[in-house]
Amino acid sequence: SHSLKMPVEAQVNLPDFDPTVQLIGGIFEEEVNHAEAAYREGYYGYSREYLKSLMGYCIGCHTRGTSGPKFLGALDIPNNVKGSPYLTGEYLAATRRFEDALKSYEEAIRDPAFLKKEQLQWEQAVTHALMISVRVLNDSVRSLRVVDEALKIKDLPYYFQRDLMDWREEITEWKSEGNKKYDDVDDYFDA
Fold it and tell me: Rounded to whole angstroms, how far apart are CA atoms 44 and 140?
């Protein structure tokens, strides 16, 4: 096993130095090691599903901004991902192809059968689409579209419908500000 954490020395030189990246990287590494141990013990299905659940870590770090590696060599979508808009979105987001990832997530969000079959992944498609449209694209119109598409689906769990309505209200307010960007969290709360 190798280290997945970015050395602190490398982080300090980043324009948006954030010490939480190191902490999150450590947790991510522990989670990957857990999946690896499960695999070595013969729990292949569990290990595979566990690893799939870790994509949020990739997306969380890789959508912190528009800078970073572009993974130009990762042009082809792997065969085990093709056919699933959600998994395609996960792969594309992890390889920083955000516009294409957002399109894949939007396709997954519009599929009511996907919600019925894979509720957790459907909810992740919504939240990951919003991570991209808000954090990377800084696009309130696109963010509203994501929320509105999700709200069109019938039989949404009440708690998630409530979250979507709250997000819609916040995004609408953000849109009225002209997609104002905040340099840090304190600026947002001081506004």
Answer: 41
